[in-house]
Design goal:
Layout: H1 6-16, H2 21-26, H3 29-35, H4 47-56
Length: 73
């Protein structure tokens, strides 16, 4: 089982929020929670959190040097 109460979520989405079935199924669970007012409320990203994201997902690839552009300029 997925851990989701699908009948209750479908009622909330389609009856409460008046979403069409296509709109409901196009949402992610996080988007549906946000629309239902159940957002996680994680707070602002800290500098340490930003640094961790930058380390995990750098803007340049491993073969590129910082400051070079793709157009050769």
């Amino acid at each position: 089982m997925s851990g989701f109460d699908w009948p209750a979520l479908m009622r909330a989405g389609m009856q409460g929020l008046r979403l069409t079935p296509a709109q409901f199924w196009a949402l992610t669970p996080a988007e549906l929670r946000l629309m239902l007012g159940q957002a996680g409320g994680g707070g602002a990203l800290s500098r340490a959190g930003l640094d961790a994201l930058l380390a995990a997902w750098p803007d340049e690839g491993p073969d590129e040097e910082q400051g070079e552009s793709d157009d050769g300029a």
